[in-house]
Amino acid sequence: MTSEKRGRPRRSSTRALEEAAAELFLEQGYSHTTVDDIASRAGVSRATFFNYFHNKSDVLWVDVDRALVYLSQSVMEASHLGRALELLAHDVAPQAVPLIASQFEAMEADLDLRGDGGQRVIQLAAIVAQAGVSPRDVWMVTGALVSAALEWSGAGVSRAALGNYLGEHLERIRSVVDAGSAASLF
Amino acid sequence: MTSEKRGRPRRSSTRALEEAAAELFLEQGYSHTTVDDIASRAGVSRATFFNYFHNKSDVLWVDVDRALVYLSQSVMEASHLGRALELLAHDVAPQAVPLIASQFEAMEADLDLRGDGGQRVIQLAAIVAQAGVSPRDVWMVTGALVSAALEWSGAGVSRAALGNYLGEHLERIRSVVDAGSAASLF
DNA sequence: CTATTTATTATACTGCGTCTAAATATTAGG
DNA sequence: CCTAATATTTAGACGCAGTATAATAAATAG
């Protein structure tokens, strides 16, 4: 995905494949949709799909993964999780709820997708740890963040900004985390 | 897996397959070991492997899964997460650290196994929710439990009983959870 | 000895993910 | 214009996971 000016132009895009996949998942369910189906609908070959995504399920988690990458980089630079989260929340529009969150059950793939979700939770925990939160607090903080994200995505169209939920849930654990963790969080 | 007295006797066992798999994973790494390899070493056919496990990775998580099933049933009966955890901890010997926990990096399968771990975390969260912990506390409690389990399994051979770690980590969040959650926890 | 029960096994199939090599479409520069 | 360099698409083959089915084998009950 270098895409300067030279070379054969792209025939598709992450977005296009995302949309094709979303359509099919809603029509036929996740497990009954093959990668071939997605590629076909997007007008490219199966091989090309894998130029854009590592695997079938990633197509659903694109937004979440982008957020995690952003957060990870942001933490590396700022070394302050609280600030990194503010930056992230600021960049996420209230409408931009990941597809996976808004239309989970419609895709009838609970079991298939549970593992993928858990993978992201673990990744988040790794970022929290990287941010300098003390080991014994890592999972408590991670839990608070997951909680906030779920409440945010679960709230209807009238949801507030993501930052509000994050702030609220972190505030609740402020009094019980180590001093070191607090320093990185608030 | 009914196994009364009638019918053809079993040629293998979960344990035997577990051990065969563990050997191979340590020898060759997780991703370079096929289900065929495992079955062969255990002296059965590939098809038989799937009579004992749902999939390749489950073989590493048997102990964790057993604990989760136990916990889930226990919660259904007692409707009290705290008590269910005590019962669980009481039944788990200090040496019985799941294979996956003790020999994680030796298997060179970080990425492959991360998803499986996350899956269990999500399952745990579901049990916590089922136990009547209030929704906004579910992930905080889950985080505390994961934290405890990791500290327990990460401690050397001199580790204390699992119950100690669980109690300690839950105690830390006691002051910040809802009254309803506390009722189910303590 | 036969019927019943349970487990093992062979076999075939779908689909994911990987890899390689070839084909295609574009730009840069002589 | 033509050629080289570059970037992307694509076909095709492969290994392996996981599912399903039907046949076979080994035990017990009566």
| Largest pleated sheet of chain A | none
Radius of gyration of chain A: 18 Å
Query: What is the residue-averaged pLDDT of chain A?
Result: 92
Give the distance, in angstroms, between the N- and C-terminal Cα atoms of chain A. 37 Å
Assembly annotation = homodimer
Strand content of chain A: under 5%
H and E string of chain A: HHHHHHHHHH
Q: Could you say which structural class the secondary elements and strand pairing of chain A correspond to? A: mainly alpha
Shape of chain A: globular
Helix content of chain A: 55-70%
Query: Helical stretch count of chain A?
Result: 10
Low-confidence segments of chain A, given as residue ranges, are none
The domain tally of chain A reads 2
Number of strands of chain A: 0
**Greatest chain-chain contact:** A-B, 28 and 27 residues
Output the keywords.
globular; homodimer; 10 helices; Arc Repressor Mutant, subunit A; 186 residues; 2 domains; DNA-binding; mainly alpha
Describe this structure in words.
Two copies of one chain form a homodimer. With 186 residues, the first copy, chain A, is mostly helical. Chain A has helices at 14-28, 35-42, 46-52, 58-78, 81-91, 99-102, 110-130, 135-154, 162-173, 179-185. The model of chain A has no long low-confidence stretch (mean pLDDT 92). Chain A binds a DNA duplex (30 and 30 nucleotides) through residues 2-12, 34-36, 44-48, 50-51, 54-56.
Which SSEs are present, and which pair or pack?
The structure is a homodimer of 186-residue chains.
Chain A: H1 14-28, H2 35-42, H3 46-52, H4 58-78, H5 81-91, H6 99-102, H7 110-130, H8 135-154, H9 162-173, H10 179-185
The structure holds a DNA duplex (30 and 30 nucleotides).
